[in-house]
Amino acid sequence: MRIVSADIRVIEVPLKVPFIVSYARYDVMPSVILRLRTDTGLVGYGEAVPDEHVTGENVDGVVAALATHLLPALRDTDPRNLNLVHERMGAALVANGAAKAAVDIACYDLLGKHAGLPVHALLGGRKPEAPMIAKVLSILPPEELAAQAREAVEEGFTHLKMKLGSDASHDIARVRAVREAVGPGVGIRVDANQGWRDVPTARRMIAAIQPFDIDWIEQPIAADDLLGFRRLRPHTDAVIMADEAVITEGDLARLVLDESVDMVNLKLMKSGGILPCQRLATQAALGGLSVQIGSMLETSVSSAAGYHLALAHRDIVSTELSGPVAFAIEPGDLRFPLPRVEITDRPGLGVTLDFDTLDRLTVTAKELIVE
Fold first, then answer.
1. Which phi-psi region, left, alpha or beta, contains residue 115 (left: φ > 0; alpha: ψ -120 to 50)?
2. Quick one: which of 250, 268, 304, 364 could link to 349 by a disulfide (CB 3.0–4.6 Å)?
3. Is 171 part of any known ligand binding site?
4. Is 129 marked as a binding-site residue?
5. Does some domain include residue 336?
6. Are residues 152 and 258 in the same domain?
7. Can you say how many angstroms the Cα of residue 291 is from the centroid of all Cα atoms in its chain?
8. Could you tell me where the DSSP H helices lie in the chain?
9. Does 26 reside within a domain?
10. 339 preceded by cis ω (within 30°)?
11. Looking at the structure, do residues 34 and 171 belong to the same domain, yes or no?
12. Any idea what the CATH number is for the domain that residue 201 is in?
């Protein structure tokens, strides 16, 4: 089997409400949908959702990376040979995790369709329980957050993830308002997205919000301050998760060596897809860390890829792939019987795309011959 052509679409997916984190606000989420065709007639789909603040990519860069470096490097490559696919992509271009993830996900979709198996079966087989999904709350005034939290619980969510970090002086009030709104039975986790920046601020903020029964604190300090986690660790018994700080095996090895975090949030977009994240998840588990699979607010395509990995890896204990429930409309068809997601046993990713919706959301499109 060989890849003979590729279709690259830049789409903009509208959100139900703006998504606000410490470093940006999104009213629509830009995404790159990749369609690979093979000489056997099979078609596989992948997705890249870059983030300038995390992966260092934007949609134009992803399109250029795919068209000029990654896909040409895969001429005469069997897409079922994922090790060789990643070897050739790595030789063609360093970093560019989101662009590589699009290719990786599309190849897994092709592999599953060729074998007649869902991706989770290719990765070792599924756990009995369906993955759970948390409701993500943007950075908003406390009273708005309280209202959204109550509504989320009424909808069926049992866990909430709060985005913090834009204004530390108001973050405590935000957490207090949400806890008072939902009571003691709902799990709350917080993500500063590097917004508290330095260790002294992180220490102060963690101590202030811990009385509100927080499950864990995600990325409280700057991503490039790996040693900062080691300085933070002796001053708190809170569960600390690294996210933006973990992209490569070297990043993870440093945190394991320092025994400075309890959890890591792996993302296909950061690290290049399913295969690299599967390896990172195993590395983390061997180092004594729990693993979460997160996302950049992706459509059903790469969300499904992340869920398949989580279903098949025993050491992945949490998933936060919430894009499909945050979008007003999107081209995929993942179903969410809250608080869980339904992952089928259909071959490949198990996602069917609505091409009318895809056309409506498309900003630009490009077709390439890969032969």
1. alpha
2. 304
3. no
4. no
5. no
6. yes
7. 12
8. 59-65, 82-92, 97-115, 119-122, 142-155, 168-182, 199-209, 226-232, 249-258, 268-271, 274-286, 300-312, 323-326, 355-361
9. yes
10. yes
11. no
12. 3.20.20.120
> Both 96 and 125 in a single domain?
no
| Contact (Cβ atoms closer than 8 angstroms) between residue 370 and residue 5 | yes
Please tell me whether the overall predicted TM-score, pTM, comes out greater than 0.85 for this model.
Answer: yes
pLDDT in tens, the chain (371 residues): 999 999 999 999 999 999 999 888 999 999 999 999 999 999 999 999 999 989 999 999 999 999 999 999 999 899 999 999 999 999 999 999 999 999 999 999 999 999 999 999 999 999 998 999 999 999 999 999 999 999 999 999 999 999 999 888 899 999 999 999 999 999 999 999 999 989 999 999 999 999 999 999 999 999 999 999 999 999 999 999 999 999 999 999 999 999 999 999 999 999 999 999 999 999 999 999 999 999 999 999 999 999 999 999 999 999 999 999 999 999 999 999 999 999 999 999 999 999 999 999 999 999 998 97
Q: What is the CATH number of the domain that holds 59?
A: 3.30.390.10
With beta carbons less than 8 A apart as the criterion, state whether 321 and 133 touch.
yes
Same domain, yes or no, for 99 and 223?
no
Find the length of the chain. 371
Domain range spanning residue 68? 3-116+358-369
Contact 136, 303 (CB under 8 A): no
Domain count across the chain:
2
DSSP 69: I
Same domain, 92 and 128: no
Residues designated catalytic: 163, 267
Query: Does 359 appear as a known binding residue?
Result: no
125 lies in the same domain as 112: no
Structure-block tokens of residue 290: 């729990």
Is 245 within a domain? yes
What CA–CA distance (Å, rounded) separates 4 from 110? 13
Q: Which residues contact 271 (CB under 8 A, 6 or more apart)?
A: 97, 101, 247, 248, 277, 280
Same domain for 304 and 273: yes
Residues 6+ apart with CB under 8 A from 209: 171, 172, 175, 190, 217
